[in-house]
Amino acid sequence: MSRLRTLLAEKFPDLQHKTLIAEIEKHSRLMTANPGDMLVKTNDYVKVVPLVTKGSIKVSRDDGEGHALFLYHIEPGQSCAMSLKSCLGEERSRIKGEADSLTELIAIPSSFIEPWMTEFPAFKRFVINTFSQRYDELLSMIDTIAFEKMDRRIMTCLRQHARAGDGRTVRLTHQKVADELNTSREVVSRLLKVMERNGQVRLGRTTIEIL
To answer: What is the pLDDT along the chain (211 residues), one digit of tens a residue?
Structure first.
């Protein structure tokens, strides 16, 4: 059994259809991305859709002036709803995707997404479930922005990043957190110090540990 087939079985049990697996194995490839590697840029055409098997991809929106709004992480066993949308609509990407840690993924060429949805019910369900999951997450993010205080938003951001590692340690600068939450570094630094005094986090030189 090839490594790609093994990873599909371990991380994507909903795609376990013999012919579908053979098609994915035939036309897709394994890719590795280092932290900070850009996998898709805003306004690019999406050439491949990722099935993440290890690590995490951070998906965000640019405002064209150097600021980014964090949308969601793609974690093992997941794919990218926005990339799927761009493929199906033959549109340029409206997001950017950046490896958040050492990441491994199965890269499916975009030209196969629509035919496989037609041919394989399991793949169609996977795509629909991906859209549904991201829709729920975006609603949750809107609730967070609209109703939660900034310290809670910071903690939510830290927990999302921590899931890509050991569940507690985050390697993010205060500026990166501020950029994701569309606020200033000074606000983030001040609130993190308050959170440290309250026993919620421990601040290191290059890390933030959730307690």
So the answer is: 688 889 989 999 999 889 999 999 999 999 999 988 999 888 888 899 999 999 999 888 876 666 677 788 899 999 999 999 888 888 888 889 999 889 999 999 999 999 999 999 999 999 999 999 888 877 777 766 666 688 888 888 888 888 877 778 888 888 888 888 878 888 888 888 888 888 888 888 778 888 8
How many C-alpha atoms does 37 have within 13 Å on its Cβ side? 15
Q: Which residue type occupies 42?
A: T
Query: Can 3-145 and 149-210 be said to share one CATH topology?
Result: no
**Domain 3-145, CATH 3.30.70.100 — does that match?**
no
CA distance between the termini of the chain: 42
* Residue 15 phi, psi dihedral angles, 5° rounding: -100, 20
Which residues have CB under 8 Å from 69's CB, separation 6+?
Answer: 60, 61, 63, 180, 182
> Quick one: residue 157, left, alpha or beta (phi over 0 = left, psi -120 to 50 = alpha)?
alpha
Query: Does the domain made of 149-210 have the CATH classification 3.40.605.10?
Result: no
Helix or strand (DSSP H, E) at 97:
strand 96-99
Domain boundaries, given as residue ranges, for the chain: 3-145, 149-210
